[in-house]
Amino acid sequence: MRTSVALVFCLILGSLGCSSSTSAPDMHVVHGTVTFDGKPIEKGRILFRQTEGDGRAYSTEIVEGAYELEVKEGPSEVTITASRLIPGKFDNSNGTPEQIGEMYIPAKYNRKTELNALVTPGGENQFAFDLMSK
């Protein structure tokens, strides 16, 4: 019984720091759209990495060209990744054919990103990223 009470207490104490209903005062909702060659990215990932301070990163999924997350105020570099299946290409190494995927977003939007955003207090913090293959 004593162990159970201690376990419940630890779980309650641990969950207090996990609440999403309250945000740190320097965190702000960031939202927007991501297109590739004029079409919404069906599924991908967007990451905002702080360029000042501790360099913390915040990321979320892109779904049907839209994203929303909380990011610390200040300048960030933005990276975007997405993959898609290659029609007609399969890997048979496991004995069962599995369709092969590819990362199709150019490096200038992820590994060598040229994208930036400035998250401001009281601002709308809406960013549209229109990516091009060429």
Order of helices and strands: HEEEEEEEEE
First-last Cα distance: 65 Å
Total helical elements? 1
What is the CATH superfamily label? Carboxypeptidase-like, regulatory domain
Kindly describe this structure:
With 134 residues, the chain is mainly β. The chain has one domain (25-131): Immunoglobulin-like, CATH 2.60.40. The chain has one helix spanning 2-16, and strands spanning 27-36, 39-40, 43-50, 57-63, 66-72, 74-91, 98-103, 115-119, 126-131. The strands form two sheets. Strands 3, 4, 6, 7 and 8 form a five-stranded antiparallel β-sheet that branches. Strands 1, 2, 5 and 9 form a four-stranded mixed β-sheet that branches. The chain starts with a helix and ends with a strand. The model is unreliable at 1-21 (pLDDT under 50).
Blueprint of the fold:
Blueprint: H1 2-16, E1 27-36, E2 39-40, E3 43-50, E4 57-63, E5 66-72, E6 74-91, E7 98-103, E8 115-119, E9 126-131
In a nutshell, what does this entry contain?
The chain is mainly β and 134 residues long. The chain has one domain: Sandwich (Immunoglobulin-like). It contains 1 helix and 9 strands; from the N terminus they run αβββββββββ.
Index terms:
134 residues, signal, 1 helix, 4-stranded mixed β-sheet, 5-stranded antiparallel β-sheet, 51% strand, disordered N terminus, mainly beta, Carboxypeptidase regulatory-like domain-containing protein, 11% helix, Immunoglobulin-like, single chain
